[in-house]
Design a protein that fits this description.
The chain has helices at residues 3-28, 52-69, 84-117, 123-148, and strands spanning 35-36, 45-46. By secondary structure, it is mostly helical. A two-stranded antiparallel ribbon has the order 1-2. A hairpin with an 8-residue loop joins strand 1 (35-36) and strand 2 (45-46). The longest helix has 34 residues, at 84-117. The two termini are 22 Å apart.
């Protein structure tokens, strides 16, 4: 798949998830108490904590986008003059997948937290978040094995 098309698909998914979560957070903001008391905690936390993960997801998106723009600055396994363009192309693809999966995972996790605070079912969002984070590791390992077995 072309890197540009992949980037557009990942961006649409991320922005869709971010806008969905932002809209949901905005709609239920007045229903949330000023101090949230999760089940597992002894003391409450401010409801403004719900902004940390979406902001972190934006930073993650930005940082991984910077890495994708400069693939020649990354470290590579088995890099030669003959295969460097292929390696750079796949590094861009890897960074695109990682920024999409990790950013979506943070937004899904935050949506799960929000739903939990509202007494709604949050298991699907927590599960999606865990699956996306596992995919980050799997994709990284697959690209590493691909690069290690690459021939000139």
């Amino acid at each position: 798949m072309n890197n540009k098309v992949l980037n557009i698909i990942i961006m649409i998914l991320f922005l869709g998830g971010l806008f969905y979560h932002g809209g949901h957070l905005f709609m239920v903001w007045s229903q949330l108490p000023s101090i949230l008391e999760p089940h597992e905690m002894d003391q409450g936390i401010s409801k403004y904590v719900l902004f940390i993960l979406p902001i972190l997801s934006l930073f993650s998106w930005y940082f991984l986008s910077l890495l994708a723009k400069n693939p020649q600055k990354l470290n590579y396994v088995n890099l030669t003059e003959n295969n460097k363009e292929v390696q750079y192309t796949n590094a861009i693809k890897l960074m695109t997948l990682l920024k999409g999966f990790s950013s979506l995972a943070l937004v899904a996790l935050n949506e799960g937290f929000l739903r939990d605070m509202l007494g709604m079912n949050s298991s699907i969002f927590i599960s999606v978040s865990i699956i996306l984070l596992i995919l980050c590791g799997i994709v990284s390992i697959l690209f590493l094995f691909w690069a290690a077995t690459l021939k000139d």
